[in-house]
Amino acid sequence: MTSSNIQNILLTGGAGYIGSHTAVALSQTGHRIFIFDNFCNSDRGAVKRIEAIIGRPIVVIEGDLRDTALLTQTLQTHQINAVVHFAGLKAVGESNRIPVEYYANNVQGTISLLQAMQKADNHPKTFVFSSSATVYGDPKYLPIDEAHPLAATNPYGRTKHHIEEILGDLAKSDPAWRIACLRYFNPVGAHDSGLIGENPNGIPNNLMPFVAQVAVGKLAQLSVYGDDYDTPDGTGVRDYIHVMDLAEGHVAALNYLTTHDGFHVFNLGTGRGYSVLEMVKAFEAASGKSVPYKIVPRRAGDIATSYASVAYATAELNWHAKRNLKDMCESGWKFQHMTAKSS
Ligand code: NAD
Ligand code: UFG
Fold first, then answer.
1. Is Hydrolase tagged as a keyword (predicted)?
2. Is residue 232 part of a domain?
3. Ligand positioned closest to the Cα atom of 47
């Protein structure tokens, strides 16, 4: 990277799981990073650990996305050139229970952020958005490419779809905007240092943090949601991607936007799927611990199989996932027993 490419980048939600790993990747590429977070699902300890990895302090602005004035001031004070927007609520089940809070936080929060970008004197117009494979809903074909119809089946997914539409309209209204929506598949694993990773509050909703907590002895056994799907072993198949590969996808997207204006959508996955039982077996091998499980009925809303076509991201971003399943499990285990522990 040449010094002319170095940017001041604001990471909303930068203290969270994916944001913290992306902060490391961007910082190590030479960019100056700034974190804006209200710590509703993270803590300042994560920022300290990012600082330990990158070896320098980070400017943190504690605030809510809906505080447009604070965001405007932040963008101006730090002469931000680009925003990577991670901040949002992300639990599918919770979004069914409190949909208004999801629309308020995710959609209204994004509108507030875009308004701040328009108001700020320096007018930053480069934007990378954390979207999700959940926007596709029940797959009509596999692998899922970016042209697949969008039919999210829950309020969380619909917030992501609405935000993508707002961003598409914005890019049409003003060709100076440079926007990338990154549709993540299933991020897992942790930074090699074991200092940052995924440590959800309460009982994990997602498979791999649950598996890690069983392995470390914090939870007794995994419930496998159904073994009667039309998959090789009957359990659900997903495209798990190492969170550092995902983080590097953001570096590639920001780089792409330096030479491409307009609105772009990319799948970030590996292009292959693993079943729940394959994931359990791989985690047992990586940790040397056993992960007892029982088969229980299917979880409402789950699909059998989801994996990405990554052809477009590979061709356009010059990026692909490099780390394998063993890397995902070993790093996830290192973080679990070194930092998240069994407390
Ligand atoms: P996370 O909860 O670990 O991180 C989100 C961060 O945003 C947290 O630090 C939280 O405190 C902050 N935040 C939330 N609402 C805020 C607000 N109103 N103002 C300021 N800060 C706020 O989640 P993550 O797994 O790192 O996910 C990051 C993004 O990626 C989210 O938008 C999520 O929807 C999306 N995503 C995640 C996954 C996944 O499986 N983890 C998959 C697809 C998409
Ligand atoms: N599963 C279990 N037991 C558990 C948890 C999960 O058997 O305790 C199974 C699920 O049935 C599924 C697989 O493990 O077959 C993966 O489930 P996750 O909850 O980890 O992930 P999902 O694919 O359901 O959803 C995740 C995020 C969504 C996101 C989607 C695609 O939760 O927000 O990946 O990116 F949209």
1. no
2. no
3. 1
Alpha carbon of 201 to ligand 1 centroid (Å) = 13
CATH value at residue 118: 3.40.50.720
Q: Are 151 and 137 in contact (CB under 8 A)?
A: yes
Catalytic residue flag (residue 156): yes
Helix (H, G, I), strand (E, B) or coil at 156: helix
Catalytic one among 102, 156, 256, 274? 156
Give the amino acid at 298: R
Q: What is the mean pLDDT of residues 131-148?
A: 98
Encode burial over 199-233: b for 16+ CB neighbours within 10 A, e otherwise.
Answer: bbeeebebbbbbbbbbbbebbeebebbbbebebee
Q: Tell me how far the alpha carbon of residue 16 lies from the centroid of ligand 1, in angstroms.
A: 6
| Ligand 2 atom nearest to CA at 208 | 20
Does 279 have pLDDT greater than 60?
yes
Number of domains in the chain: 1
Does 299 map to a domain?
no
Residue 159 included in any domain: yes
Q: Which atom of ligand 1 is nearest to the CA of 66?
A: 18
The ligand that comes nearest to the alpha carbon of residue 299 is: 2
Distance 189 CA to ligand 1 centre (A): 16
pLDDT digits (tens, 9 = 90+) for 215-261: 999 999 999 999 999 999 999 999 999 999 999 999 999 999 999 99
* pTM, rounded to two decimals: 0.98
Please report whether residue 104 resides in a domain.
Answer: yes
